[in-house]
């Protein structure tokens, strides 16, 4: 997804060869948007997911399961520590 050139921090992701910003998006099983965060492209996907999911339990207490790809390895441990 492209974003506007105006404003916001930018970075370069060497692995994906992206200069600018990346979007982390959380949707439900029907594709409805729950939340989105835009980050500099040099922020690792796992860290971007942590920022995206901060406060998730308070806003959406009924969420019990997340599906993510392998770029988010270790996220379950972080969620367990964060949510207690």
- Strand tally is 3
- Gyration radius over CA: 14 Å
The amount of helix comes to: 25-40%
Would you list the SSEs in sequence order as H and E?
Answer: EEEHHH
Largest β-sheet summary = 3 strands, antiparallel
Number of domains: 1
Mean pLDDT: 81
Distance between the termini: 34 Å
Shape: globular
What portion of the residues fall into strands of 2 or more residues?
25-35%
Number of helices: 3
Read across the widest sheet, the strand sequence of neighbours is 1-2-3
Broad structural category: alpha+beta
Low-confidence stretches: none
Defining key terms:
84 residues, alpha+beta, three-stranded antiparallel β-sheet, 3 strands, globular
Write the layout of secondary structure elements.
Elements: E1 11-13, E2 18-27, E3 33-40, H1 45-53, H2 56-59, H3 75-83
Antiparallel strand pairs: 1-2, 2-3
């Amino acid at each position: 997804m492209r974003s506007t050139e105006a404003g916001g921090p930018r970075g370069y992701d060497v692995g994906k060869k992206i200069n600018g910003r990346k979007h982390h998006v959380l949707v439900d099983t029907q594709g409805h948007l729950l939340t989105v965060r835009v980050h500099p492209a040099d922020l690792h996907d796992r860290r971007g997911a942590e920022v995206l999911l901060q406060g998730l339990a308070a806003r959406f207490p009924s969420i019990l399961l997340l599906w993510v790809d392998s770029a988010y390895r270790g996220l379950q441990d972080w969620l367990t520590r964060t949510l207690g």
